[in-house]
Amino acid sequence: MAQQLQAGSLLQPPTQRLLQQPSQKALPSSLQRLCGGGTQALASTSQRLLALPARRRRLQTSATIAAERPSKVAKPELDWESLGFGLNHVAPTMFEATFEPEHGWQPGSLRPYGPMQLLPSAQVLNYGQSIFEGMKAQRSAKGRVVLFRPDMNAKRMQAGAQRMSMPTVPEDVFVEAVKQTLRANLDYVPPQGKGSLYMRPMLMGTGPILGLGPAPSYTFLVYAAAVGAYFKGGQLTPIDLIVEEHFHRSAPGGMGGTKAAGNYSPVLVTQLAAKTQGYADVVYLDAKTDTYLEEVSSCNIFTVKGKTIKTPPLQGTILPGVTRRSVLDLAQRRGYTVEEVPVSITEAMEADEVFTSGTAVVVCSVGSMTYKGQRKQYNEAGKPGPVALEIYEALTSLQQEKAEDPFGWVVPVA
């Protein structure tokens, strides 16, 4: 029988505040309650879409997830030793649900991974209403399949939806959709230590529209793929970065802190140029002064000096990474001084060590960084920095249940 979930709170506090403390509330298998209300700002930008008055009030809607697994498919024969980060091993089942202002979130269901039907006038194709998340499921040392902090991804997508004038996906519905997609694709979760099942929740304005405005309808979906290390050299191989001196990834008051699809393609021009020169990726500086580190194309960045770990603060221009927050909490617990402060490029070039973090990259040591033609080599060539390695091992041991989880971050699913 299908399990039914009522929608949770539609609007949450801003992402930065939400990512400071993970939610500890347990998610029941069946929940019925009214949805939380919107804000005046969201109502004014999406009044037609969400049918909200100018003043704050509650919007009653429901989202039902059909948890039945589609017809069984043949068990895949995958080469777990050669997994890369791509779509060579896409899981066969995905989740999909739709939203219409008159009816709210409609019952979602699992269906075969495949093409979507979109009109050329779909809002997402013309005006780019699209946000997404990245998550990983892994097999643990306890013989379970687990997720890592899925509630944080749900909250970040809610904040992104508010910024993009889109209907928010209730947290419990988001998490349950991810769990159902995972359970339907367990055969694509690699053996422990061989990789992970990368999960991609997406929210898109799929309804047709000609003039600029919110889409008349939306689609929330989750698909997955078995993956290995993000960078070609392997998970623990240090990467070489170059500092971008012309383009900027984001600016104050812009979209840098939102995981919107449109934030990523603009970095390709610099990333591809860097790769032709032998670099793995690009480091961006702040748009106001060209002085302070912001982030790498798809991950956050940290510097190490002695027992102090620094990372740029969340001020709306960089993504509030779930792994970033986890690294800071882990490092502090392990005795490091942790600072979320502006880090100048000069200070970074004089650091003992630099590393990056993200769902895809996990924790990755930076082997070298080049700025204005000057190359700074960190650590011994080809070997990860000791702090990056320590944090990586601590984080992955926790994620794979090799070590105790004092934070309650790991969520068993199967």
TrEMBL record:
Residues 1-25 are annotated as: Disordered. One of its GO terms (molecular function) is branched-chain-amino-acid transaminase activity. PROSITE patterns: AA_TRANSFER_CLASS_4 (PS00770). Residues 10-22 have a biased composition (Low complexity). It catalyses: L-valine + 2-oxoglutarate = 3-methyl-2-oxobutanoate + L-glutamate; L-leucine + 2-oxoglutarate = 4-methyl-2-oxopentanoate + L-glutamate; L-isoleucine + 2-oxoglutarate = (S)-3-methyl-2-oxopentanoate + L-glutamate. InterPro entries: Aminotrans_IV, Aminotrans_IV_CS, Aminotransferase-like, B_amino_transII, BCAT-like_C, BCAT-like_N, BCAT_family. This is Branched-chain-amino-acid aminotransferase. It comes from [Myrmecia] bisecta.
